[in-house]
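Researcher: We're teaching a course module on how sequence relates to structure. For the next exercise, students receive a sequence and then see the predicted structure as C-alpha cells, so they can try to spot secondary structure elements on their own. Here is the exercise chain.
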Amino acid sequence: MSFFVKGILLEQKKEPMLTRSTLVMRQEFQYFDCDFMETPIDELSKEQIIEIARLAEIVDESDGKMLWEKLEKAELGEKGTLIVDAIDDEPYISSQMAIGIHHQEKFALGIELCEKVLAPAKTYIAMYKHIFDTNFSIPRKIGGYKVEKIGGRYPAENRAYRHIPKGRNSIVIGSCAMLHLARAAEDSRKMSSCFLTVAGDAVSNPRNVEVPVGTSVEEILRLCGLTEEPEVIVVGGSMTGRAIFEPENELVGPTTRGIVALSRSYNHSTYNCIGCGRCDHACPKALSVSTMRKLAEFGKFDELRNYDAAQCIGCGACSYVCPARIDIAATIIKAKKQMELAKKEGTL
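Model: And here is the predicted structure for the students to work with:
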C-alpha cells in the first residue's frame, strides 16, 4: 500500500511493550466439558472445532463477534482467504502483534484449527510494517504462516480490509481469538481473559498484559505501576479510545485493545478553529470534516447527513492533527449517535 493516500503518519511508540513478554495477572481458569475432548487435536472434525469454540465462549477481539458463529457461517469457497488480524497500527498498541511474537506455538495451532474448519486456499497473518521507532523486525513467517506486511498511513487497518480483492470470499479473525481457540482445544479452557497494551508516560512498567475479563482499569494500572498520577487515561485504542475519569469503575472486555495513561492531556481545547483545513486533509475517507464539525456542534443533523457523516470511521486522525486541540472526532461521533437515535424515533 502506498504512502500517497489519505491519512496521517504516526510515531508507533510500541516499545518496550512489543518486545517484552506478556505480563499475566493471576486468575482462576474456567473449563468446559464435552464428549470428544479425548480426541487428538489433529483428528478433530470441523463440527467439533466449532463446538469447542462455542463451549469456550470465544469472542473475536477484532469485531466483538462470537468465533463459533463466524466459523459456522463462513463460506470461503475454492479461492477463500483466511486473514489473521495482528495489524495494530495505532500508537502504543501491540496486543495483537505480541500474540504472534511471544505465543507462536499456540498462535499457529489456532490458525491450523481455523484452517481445518474453513479450508481456505490462502492464509496469511497481517501486521503493520511501519514501526520505525524500534529495532524489532517483523518476521516473514510465524509458525510456517506467511506474514503480510501492511503499509500506508494511519488508519492502515481499515484500509487493508477495504482493499481485500473483490470476488474472493474472505474472513478476518483476530490473533487473540486464535490463541484462545488453541487453549480450548488443548485444555478445555474457556475464554476468561483478554490481552491489552498498558502504556503511556505515566506507566512505570509498560507491558502487554493478560487479565481476566471484567478487571477494572485501576487494578490493571496497579499491576503495571504508575510513575505519577495521570492527567488522562484512555481506554480502547490510543487514537480510537475514550478518556475515562473513574478507572475503578471501568471494566475491560474482550475487545479492549489498550490502556494509555498520560501525565498530561493534549486534547483540551483552548483555541477556536482557525480554519486551516488540516482535518479535511487528514481524513482517510476524504470527508469535509471541518464543515461536519460545525454542523454537528449546532445540531443541524439534516444538513450533516448530506455530508456523508455515516461514512466517518471514528479513527481520530482529525483530532490528532488539529492545532487548536479540538476533539473533532468525538463531536462528530456524538452527532452520529444522536442522528441514529433520531432516526429510530422517526424525528429525522
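Model: If you want an answer key for the exercise: The chain has a mean pLDDT of 91. The chain has three domains: 23-187, 193-262, 278-345.
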